[in-house]
Amino acid sequence: MASAPIKLDTAIIGGGIAGLWLLNRLQQQGRHCALFEREALGAGQTLASQGMIHGGIKYTLAGALSGASEAIADMPRRWGECFAGTGEINLQSAKLLSEDFYMFSSQLSSSKISTFFASKLTRGRVEQVKGADLPALFQGQSSAQVYKLLDIVVDTPSLLKALSEPYRERIFKLPSKHHWLKEADNAQLCLTDEDGEEQIIQANNFVFCAGEANATLLENLGLKKPTMQLRPLQQVCVKHNLPFRFYGHCMGAESTPRLTISSHSCEDGEQVWYLGGSLAEAGAKQSPEELIDQAKQELAELFPWLDFSKAQWCSLPINRAEPRQKGLVRPDKAFAECAAGINNVIVGWPTKLALSPNFADQAIEQLKAADQTLSQQSTLPNLPEAKISKAPWDKLFPSKEDLSS
């Protein structure tokens, strides 16, 4: 027998950074909200990201500013205010991995990119570094020209914790038995607990921000729009004992970075270099073995003074879920839109970690347009709390304790 329905202003489906950011913003506005996650917080694209809060300069590698670079240009400032405790959400407890991000290329001096970076269009957003100001990785080892960007890198597990702690009582793990209902052109979520008791979740609006799972959510309600595109990656994780932590892009001949490197700590204290960029995009079509061989060649060519002979290697396939674009190109900004054929569902994708605040802006505008009376009910579902997922490298590489057991 079903109990009385739980009534919410907004029910958020998806526990990545975008969903948690939106939950914080809506609760600040006095809305009665809850967030529902199928697995664990950050288990999808969030923890598989490199943690970069960038201002779009990496999209200028073709030698001109683009729609993508301009849409994201203000993100480092906006996030920076949050990390300082003066922004829209207090993220002082989140850990910054680096306040410096670099671009480098051994052939930069002969390219048009060098001229572009010296132009007034990028003034204040890019700074060339030399000598003692070079990152430790390049000290005395390379003739590469190196540029420092305004970008920052955040530790995503600590970011998930900072965003979830204020409203932990409103963040739930969906039971394995749940399904969607469509009543009078409104969506309802039906949960079934271990005892077989049903609980109906009614909401003025459901916001689907579950990444790749948005397509399944829409399908469960018989909906087709907005449509989604997937752009696959296969990243490489290199676990090593080298002393260098580095965050940067290697520029090549393409409009995307040849290689993007970020450094992350494993649970056992050892370090992983996480490799993205064109290597990961092209790697989506390769076997893990082929991609790892290519990654070894890339690192040997770019950093011949480093010894990776004792490193451990793994690859991580990821699908970037985005709103469908003509020609399947990369979207310029975050996206949130009402689903076609139903009254109370908004569907969105932040498209990248750095644009999560922009996603919340757009979702809130959609909610304002709905102009519905806020719920006066304070009841919340009786469900377990959704926990924070392990980082992918801690899943890929067994700890020393695991190996000895």
What does this structure look like?
This protein is an alpha+beta fold. The protein folds into three domains: 6-46 and 159-227 and 324-390, 3-Layer(bba) Sandwich (FAD/NAD(P)-binding domain), CATH 3.50.50.60; 54-86 and 95-149, no CATH class; 230-320. Helix content is 24%, strand content 28%. It is built from twelve helices and 19 strands. The strands form three sheets. Strands 1, 2, 9, 10, 11, 12, 18 and 19 form an eight-stranded mixed β-sheet that branches. The protein has an eight-stranded mixed β-sheet with strand order 6-7-5-14-15-16-13-17. A hairpin with a 5-residue loop joins strand 15 (259-265) and strand 16 (271-276).
List keywords for this structure.
405 residues; FAD/NAD(P)-binding domain; 3 domains; eight-stranded mixed sheet
Which helices and strands occur, and which strands form pairs?
Layout: E1 6-13, H1 17-28, E2 33-37, H2 45-48, E3 52-53, H3 67-71, H4 75-83, E4 96-98, E5 101-105, H5 112-117, E6 126-129, E7 145-149, E8 152-154, H6 156-164, E9 171-173, E10 178-183, E11 186-192, E12 198-208, H7 214-220, E13 228-240, E14 248-250, E15 259-265, E16 271-276, H8 278-283, H9 288-302, E17 312-323, E18 335-338, E19 345-349, H10 356-370, H11 392-396, H12 400-404
Parallel strand pairs: 1-2, 1-12, 2-9, 5-14, 12-19
Antiparallel strand pairs: 3-8, 4-8, 5-7, 6-7, 10-11, 11-12, 13-16, 13-17, 14-15, 15-16, 18-19
Helix pairs in contact: 1-6, 1-10
